[in-house]
Amino acid sequence: MDKDIEYRFLTHAGFRKFISCLIDGFVVYGTIKKDGFPAFGPITDSKDLVLARTPTHLSAKEFFFPQREALLEFDMASGSHSPIVESRDQVVIGAHPCDLAGLGLMDRVFSTGSTDVNYLARRERTLIIGADCMPDDYCFCESLGTETIDKGFDLFLTEIKSGLLVSIGSEKGEAILSKYTKPLPPKDVHLRESAKALEKKKRSFKARLSAPKEELPGIYAKSDAHPVWEKIGAICYGCGSCNNVCPTCYCFDVKDEVTPDLSGGERVRVWDGCTLEEFAKVAGDHNFRRSRADRLRHRFNRKFRYLSDKFNSLFCVGCGRCSRTCLVKINITEVTNELIRDARTEDEYLGVPAAARKG
Ligand code: SF4
Ligand code: SF4
């Protein structure tokens, strides 16, 4: 247990009552079962909420950075325009530690340089209630140190036998918990149960990176000519699904949508993805990442190398969503482990496997 965090205890019934009170006062989103799988969705009844153990298909980023949003509206006749900043008081329940780590990275992106008022307005007005999880075959957050988290939430839930252990992450979280419930101080048995759940989680990871995270930027820097890029580029569909599901992919396109009578319109932004063919296309039909191999190498390098120069942090949180979603089973853990293996077995890695060079 983290000695710097304060904990409370809620019974299952007390927790359901808390959720009902939140529904009365806020727009609430949380984890639900959709077609048998965990997903985020609107919660209008406390029974809708199913605290998901394994990751949702899409991450929680859509509540702060929607797939499509209007940024401003314009009027052609007057030549005027006005910004659109939409936000409301909302609660997001059930984000796992990796999702919270991803949001922390998005916060840095959208508040560095010219700040993004739309994103930050939503962040400001959202109460985040995280929840603990168990890894599936694709989760490798433990290799990146994001399997637990001690900040980036208002409240954090760990389900134990007799109820829920609630970690207090902010004054806002504590105030709302006390307003709507009568949380109890946790007993030793609750803390022990929670610690046991965490130990079980740590033992359950099947996917792991075979090098410490600090070595990954260097390993990627040596791997530009590695044959794995051509290998996975040959089977990739260039569909962009891996970008869409990723909690740390934040690239977007901006378009003007004009009304049919040309009197005005909206400037909108929509998610974009570096694995899509159009992403790097510029005037004159030039495309500086025409091949799928180049685009995948770019994406992986963004996660493990390029952005660490700018933000001093890796931009992958190990949620495994890109691997889980990919129709042709391109797996980020396996690809990275292949690079690690070859970077370690080469004296001076030049992109040609040792066996081939010796031959
Ligand atoms: S890696 Fe997989 S999910 Fe990503 S673009 Fe290629 S086929 Fe689509
Ligand atoms: S790159 Fe893949 S594993 Fe890493 S955060 Fe994005 S979706 Fe998750």
Mean pLDDT: 94
Taking the sheet with the most strands, its summary is: 7 strands, mixed
Strand content: 15-25%
Name the hetero compounds present: iron/sulfur cluster
User: Structural class of the secondary elements?
Assistant: alpha+beta
The helicity comes to: 25-40%
Uncertain spans, ≥5 residues at pLDDT below 50?
none
Query: How many alpha or pi helices?
Result: 12
Shape: globular
Q: Kindly report how far apart the N and C termini lie.
A: 54 Å
How many β strands by DSSP?
Answer: 13
As for the number of domains, it is 2
- Kindly provide the radius of gyration, computed on alpha-carbon positions and rounded to a whole number of angstroms: 23 Å
Element-level helix/strand string: EHEEEEEHHEEEHHHHHEEEEHHHH
Strand order within the widest beta sheet:
1-9-8-7-6-2-3
Explain how this protein is built.
This protein has 359 residues and is α+β, with helices and mostly antiparallel strands. The protein has two domains: 6-66 and 85-203, no CATH class; 213-255 and 274-354, no CATH class. Helix content is 34%, strand content 21%. The protein has twelve helices and 13 strands. A seven-stranded mixed β-sheet has the order 1-9-8-7-6-2-3. The protein has a four-stranded antiparallel β-sheet with strand order 5-4-11-10, with no helix packed on it. The chain has a two-stranded antiparallel sheet with strand order 12-13. A hairpin with a 3-residue loop joins strand 12 (281-282) and strand 13. It is globular, with a radius of gyration of 23 Å. The protein binds iron/sulfur cluster (2 copies). Residues 245-248, 303, 316-322, 332 line the site of one iron/sulfur cluster (SF4).
